[in-house]
Amino acid sequence: RPGGNPQIDPALMEAHLKATGGQVVTRFPPEPNGFLHIGHAKAINVNFGYAKAHGGVCYLRYDDTNPEAEEERYFTSILEAVKWLGFTPYTVTYSSDNFQRLYELAVELIRRDKAYVCHCTGEEIKAHRGGDAKGPRSDCVHRARPVAESLAEFQKMKDGRYGEGEAVLRMKMNMQDGNPQFWDLVAYRVLNTPHHRTGSTWCIYPTYDYTHCLCDSFENITHSLCTTEFRQSRESYYWLCDALGVYKPVQWEYGRLNVTNTVLSKRKLLQLVNAGLVSGWDDPRLYTLPALRRRGIPPQAINNFVREVGITTSNTTIEVERLDNQTRAYLDEHAPRLMAVVKPLRITLTNLPEDFSESLTVPFKPRTPAMGEHTVPFTRELYIDASDFRLEDSPDYFRLARGKSVGLLHVPHPITCEDVELDAAGEPVHLLCRYENGPDVPKPKAYVQWVAHNPAHGSPVPIQELRVYDRLFRHNNPLDKSEVPEGWLSDVDVDSLHRLTGALVEVGVWDAVRRWTAAMADPVVERAHVENLRFQFVRIGYFAVDKDSVLPPSETVASGDSAACTAAGQLVFNRIVTLRESNKK
Ligand code: ATP
Ligand code: MG
Ligand code: MG
């Protein structure tokens, strides 16, 4: 252990071991003043992971001692995010549950002459600590006041007889120690803010420095795991436990995790939201856990990413591409593969009878029977992706053009384009093709995906909008002035969200119905529920349903009436990640 283990009082250790049965006990202690981000995913993995690896347990403790910054939605979102990552808190606790006990220990600390009420202003306290110039340090006049006087003053603080800033309780540590964490830290301050859970019961609130180690002690935490900026706090953490003679956990530090091309701090995220540069805290271009979830990033990919990066004491900024790679690797294994076509282009196979229909059995993943299979209707009318047809042919183009053949994925024979109908603007809207089921079948050089329309076998599902995301920040490290001299906000790529909505498509049997649609997909997509399902759209990318989708009422889904479903619903898909590392868009 870095820095050596603290001195342990045998009697306290015995009581501790009795309480825990010798089990490892850790805690993840977020302050409920914002949404969790990818860095917190590391903290969650470290705490829950360490406990799990040693057959122990991990608490989720809301460190809610700062009522000014805390909101109900953060409490809810934090627990959801922890569960989403696949971890189950042993118990959910709140630092505020201990307000009475913490108060009593503060009184005890004064009695032991290890704390005093101080009336210095913030400026004065700073000056006594040597000021900005790191000059000589000195005790303030209040430090030497009698215990009885501090007890009476602390009572007055609690009774609301001091305004904010007029009095604080400070720990009597060592102003001459080289470690700033010993310069008589503040334990309690006056705050006339009602608390989310305790209402207006208290007008004094304990600080992080005072609360954190004592709550760890109360919960019999064995390993207090925290990030390296708390290294200097380790000694003051031990000091307070010893000063009160309570059980003392061991503190270990690990490095903070950051990723490139983003910012994580709450204050900066708030600026982005307020400036309208993102749609909210869960904008899929952000790296908050709600944003990653909304985008469709699987929680397993986040955990794999965190584990791959590893646990060291150095703070690291990891290329965001490594998260993409983990996402791709996970989705490649687990996401069902479906055919979908962007900007659907209608095809009629003119040599097939009007009522021609075959059911093709298509696996959700080739050579992976465990993923299952489903049937896909193959009919006379179908759609391909507009990008798989060219009016201007060239010898190095292997997909569809006038007079050319192409294979349709999963279909036994290729098709050949015989004629093209153009709209008024000269754009192709309908291809007349031959299904090559005769004796001289040309061997296709390429295969393309397609969807068929036949109401008896389920209609293809119109997708109203596809959203494709680039990095929100152009530079690896937008906060680095040498990379971005104009400041991080200027680094935002305002064109990083691409919304693909609407080619005007005539939807097969609803000849009269013309609707705006960005894409058409395999009918299986209709089973997609917001955030639950992620797909590989073959040859296009990995996609997940966005929460902006309006899902059809469940009765229409149950009835299997696709026309009614899609008429009532509006599907919006996010591209989670590209199929391969190289294709950036
Ligand atoms: P932020 O200001 O970014 O929200 P924080 O340190 O205030 O971070 P808390 O809500 O207090 O965050 O964090 C809960 C736990 O998560 C703490 O133990 C903290 O050290 C840890 N943590 C926060 N950010 C990171 C990070 N980037 N990497 C690893 N652990 C982190
Ligand atoms: Mg925080
Ligand atoms: Mg914090």
From TrEMBL:
GO aspect biological process, one term: glutaminyl-tRNA aminoacylation
Native organism: Tieghemiomyces parasiticus
Protein keywords: Aminoacyl-tRNA synthetase, ATP-binding, Ligase, Nucleotide-binding, Protein biosynthesis
Protein name per the record: glutamine--tRNA ligase
Entry GO terms, CC: cytosol
Family per similarity comment: Belongs to the class-I aminoacyl-tRNA synthetase family.
Record flagged with keyword ATP-binding: yes
A Gene Ontology molecular function term of the record: ATP binding
EC number of this enzyme: 6.1.1.18
Span of the entire protein shown here: 236 to 820 of 827
Domain Glutamyl/glutaminyl-tRNA synthetase class Ib catalytic stretches: 23-332
Reaction(s) catalysed by this chain's protein: tRNA(Gln) + L-glutamine + ATP = L-glutaminyl-tRNA(Gln) + AMP + diphosphate
The Glutamyl/glutaminyl-tRNA synthetase class Ib anti-codon binding domain, residue ranges: 335-436
Domain (tRNA synthetases class I (E and Q) anti-codon binding) ranges: 448-546
Class of the enzyme per the UniProt entry, highest EC level: ligase
